[in-house]
Amino acid sequence: MSIPPASEPQGPEPVTRAPGQWPADLASTAPSAYPAPAYPTATVQPTNGAATASLVLGIVSIVTSLLFLPAIIGLVLGIVGVGRSRRSRPQVGRGKAIAGIVLSTIGLLTGIGIVSALTSGDDSGTGSAQAPIVQPQESEDGKTEGGEATEPTAAAEEPVAEPELPGVGDAVRDGKFEFTVTKVEPGVKEIGDEFLSQEAQGQFVLVHLTVENIGDESQYFDGNNVTGYDAKNREFAADTEAAIYLDDSNSFLNEINPGNSVMGVVVFDVPADVKLSQLELHDSAFSGGVEVALG
């Protein structure tokens, strides 16, 4: 009887794995067989909150002109917004900031005009009405209606010369302000800098002047209270919007305390062939005003 040979001991069956497949206990350390999916990165667009806030407050200040706070804050935020737009590429919010400045300015001026109309009135005042002087009528035979003969006077035949107006360098006063025009600079085509500027429709005329408060309380100086005239007696308003682009213009709602003085520039945008010959300066929108010849 033959005994069959003992079979060789069998080891564990080999585990078949796909190429690149790692055991379960080493899966945590195995390199990824596939690269991580690429997700698009979000691009953050630059914003200019100050410009938006200035525009909103400018609109509010038009409606609530007597509440000066929205207009003042809107003006400040507009200037901040313009500065931020300069530093961003591309420039963001510049148009909103400028619109906020303009609307806040209109709201502020409207409120100041209403308050001035209600409180100050005309600084020059009006006295009691004088009775008209009635000259005796002269008849054809040289006698008055009372029967007495009249003699012509030489003074009546001579034209009365108009008084000469003060000029550049002369100090003149209206209300609480003393004005001195120091220089007139015509023919300026553009004002501002490379980032924020404005071109003239015709030419800018820059009137340099000194304003001193000679009253006993503070007063606002504003370029809107200065009017220009040419030789044809045409009237030209100051361009206060363009003055915003001019450094140190000091001609936009500049509050001056008693005894203080400022040096400012009032901007006019006039045709290229116009020469301003005269200014009319006021310490407020309703004052009597004073005239100065520009030569």
TrEMBL record:
Output the Pfam families linked to this UniProt entry: DUF4190, DUF4352
> Is Flavoprotein set as a keyword in this record?
no
Q: Which residues cross the membrane?
A: 55-77, 97-118
Q: What is this protein called?
A: DUF4352 domain-containing protein
Keywords (alphabetical) are: Membrane, Signal, Transmembrane, Transmembrane helix
Region Disordered: what ranges? 1-22, 121-169
Carries keyword Ubl conjugation? Answer: no
Question: Organism's domain of life?
Answer: Bacteria
| UniProt-listed InterPro entries | DUF4190, DUF4352, Immunoprotect_excell_Ig-like
| Lineage start | Bacteria, Bacillati, Actinomycetota, Actinomycetes, Micrococcales
Residue ranges, compositional bias (Low complexity)? 147-169
Boundaries of every DUF4190 domain copy: 51-110
Please list the residue ranges annotated as the DUF4352 domain: 167-289
